[in-house]
Amino acid sequence: MTPFPARRRVSAAASRRFHALAHRLARAFAALVLAGLAAGFASVGPQASAVQPVEDDRMAEFDRWTWPTPPPVAIASPFRAPPTPYAAGHRGVDLRAAAGASVLAPADGVVSFSGMVAGRPVVSIDHGDGVISSMEPVVSAVPAGTAVSEGRPVGTVGTGGHCEGCVHLGVRVDGAYVSPMLFLGGVPFAVLLPLT
């Protein structure tokens, strides 16, 4: 005697009925899952619609900076936020510019740094309220501590850096990098809308 009973032969019709039932059950289960997800999203709808966008007065004040490179402005590489503070990303925009071209202060401020960083000439300007712009490679004779006006030359395009024939413009707000386009008027503020 075998421990298992003899296998019954299943007819083709019974097999089709079984598979049809299995498909109906799978569709019904999928419909229940989707209905549950929809109910879950619907329950957060009123809360989501109550969220208001945060307005940062510092960005409103600086929303129309002057481009630091001569026209026509051409962006070689856009800002790409890293997923975490120390992950890879592109913490600024690269603007096409010929070596030796003038680099302008994007807004009023005080030069907070003018010198070499990792073999590249860098100029940083403190615009107040925790907003700092940095440009490289920029050869500058303007020493740290010098007040600069928007649109005035702060140096010339140097060589080196990660993008030949361009100037990298980075902006930090309270030490965190943000897209310079927020200050140059190129990125609209996000508006949160209700899900319904």
From TrEMBL:
Residues 89-180 form the M23ase beta-sheet core domain. Signal peptide: none annotated. This is Murein DD-endopeptidase MepM/ murein hydrolase activator NlpD. The keyword Ligase does not apply. Gene3D superfamilies: Glucose Permease (Domain IIA). CDD domains: M23_peptidase. It comes from the Bacteria. One of its GO terms (molecular function) is metalloendopeptidase activity. Keywords: Hydrolase, Signal.
